[in-house]
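agent> Task received from the user: take the single chain below, predict its 3D structure, and emit structure tokens. No templates, no multimer pairing.
agent> Plan: (1) validate residues, (2) run structure prediction, (3) serialize to tokens, (4) report one or two observations.
agent> Step 1 OK, no nonstandard residues flagged.
tool_call: predict_structure(input=
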Amino acid sequence: MLTRRTVLTATLAAAAVSTLGVRSSHAQKITKQEIFFDKDAPVLGNPKGDVTVVEYFDYQCPYCKKAHPMIKKVIKEDGNVRLVLKDWPVFGDASIFAAQAVLGAAQIGKYETAMEALMKTSGKLSHEDVEKALTGAGLSIEKLAAAVNKNNDKISGLLDRNYNQAVAFNFVGTPSFVIGSTLFPGYLDEKGLKDAIAKARK
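)
tool_result: status=success, residues=202
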């Protein structure tokens, strides 16, 4: 009988093979629609906003976690920005595990709850740390595991596409952003983010 951890880990392993097996040559087929309007990518902020901010991030990235409250604040205060969140798990198995779990949560309407729980963590994460943060936020690991397994193709496909895009843009780490027609390969402070949004809006 599978435990809750082995269910998620089995899915994780399949996703890791799928994600790491992507060939960068596929990256040249990426379209604007896929970057800004991937139907499987979570969207926060104003879904009908006139500017889209795309963030490539990792739940183990300290700069991603540092920037997250500021990004939410800017998006909320602006009121007319779509925030597209693209998991790009570059820090190993625990990062892929976290991405899978949160994207599983998205399938049961709990994306923000799960994402916020992991963004509040600090330091390097283990599988156990991820589970503890999610259960601490009131989420059921059994339900997340079932959602991940049921939607494995969708979740793995999304991670593949995110990976392809990051490779195509020559991003070297997280966080990285696409705002309007401009790439931002690295951390943005509040002024930098606001300026980028204003430039995209012109």
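agent> Step 4: summary for the user.
The first strand starts at residue 43 and ends at 45.
agent> Done.
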